């Protein structure tokens, strides 16, 4: 349910610096996803600075901008040390930390993540544990596939938190999350409480 911006910021360890305290119904780092009442988090990209999309986010109804450096905008701008960490923390708070209500298994490694994820989900399902999953191939909630292969092996932090919340609402008791190395480095699974973590292997692609 929607929460005050100040609550989301405090959950991320950020002291609010503006008197404007809108009620927030969503957070995203993609300006194209912004809806009225959402927060746009200008996460630094590997190829571009997303702060340049602040105007587009404002036009779509963003309530505020969260960034690591000053941004020219008519909206309130909250500066934070790490936009990635703040995005993950705010998303977890917005959706009431759903991973704490699930037995979550995270699977990482160079190869075999998807296969291992399906094996784990199958084992838990066959011993009577309703299990959701977020993998390269599909996202499954309450025993129903809700989407095919996405652009990323591991989606954004807000998508993960929202999907875990849907699993809780659907009656799932466990979840399997495929975690790419980029997702770990980019804080996409930050604030996901893992019961189990599996590493399949570390090949030359990730030896560093």
Description:
With 208 residues, this protein is an alpha/beta fold. 28% of the residues lie in helices and 21% in strands. The chain contains six helices and twelve strands. The chain has helices at 5-11, 54-59, 83-94, 113-126, 157-170, 181-185; strands spanning 3-4, 23-24, 26-28, 38-41, 64-67, 77-79, 103-108, 131-134, 139-141, 144-147, 174-178, 196-199. The relative contact order is 0.16. The protein starts with a strand and ends in a 9-residue tail after the last strand. The strands form three sheets. A six-stranded mixed sheet has the order 10-9-8-11-7-12, with helices on both faces.
Chain-wise SSE layout:
Layout lengths: L2 E2 H7 L11 E2 L1 E3 L9 E4 L12 H6 L4 E4 L9 E3 L3 H12 L8 E6 L4 H14 L4 E4 L4 E3 L2 E4 L9 H14 L3 E5 L2 H5 L10 E4 L9
Parallel strand pairs: 3-4, 4-5, 5-6, 7-11, 7-12, 8-11
Antiparallel strand pairs: 1-2, 8-9, 9-10
């Amino acid at each position: 349910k929607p929460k005050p911006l100040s609550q989301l910021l405090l959950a991320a360890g950020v002291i609010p610096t503006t008197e404007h305290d809108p009620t927030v119904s969503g957070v995203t780092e993609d300006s194209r996803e912004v809806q009225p009442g959402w927060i746009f988090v200008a996460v630094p990209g590997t190829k571009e600075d997303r702060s340049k999309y602040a105007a587009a986010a404002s036009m779509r109804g963003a309530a505020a901008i969260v960034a690591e450096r000053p941004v020219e905008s008519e909206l309130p701008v909250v500066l934070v040390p790490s936009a990635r960490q703040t995005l993950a923390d705010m998303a977890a708070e917005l959706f009431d930390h759903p991973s704490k209500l699930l037995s979550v298994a995270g699977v990482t490694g160079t190869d075999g993540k998807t296969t291992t994820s399906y094996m784990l989900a199958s084992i838990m399902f066959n011993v009577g544990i309703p299990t959701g999953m977020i993998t390269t191939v599909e996202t499954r909630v309450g025993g129903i596939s809700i989407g095919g292969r996405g652009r990323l092996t591991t989606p954004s932090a807000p998508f993960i938190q929202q999907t875990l919340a849907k699993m809780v609402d659907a009656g799932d008791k466990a979840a399997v999350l495929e975690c790419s190395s980029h997702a770990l480095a980019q804080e996409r699974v930050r604030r996901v409480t893992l019961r189990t973590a599996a590493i399949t292997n570390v090949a030359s692609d990730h030896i560093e």
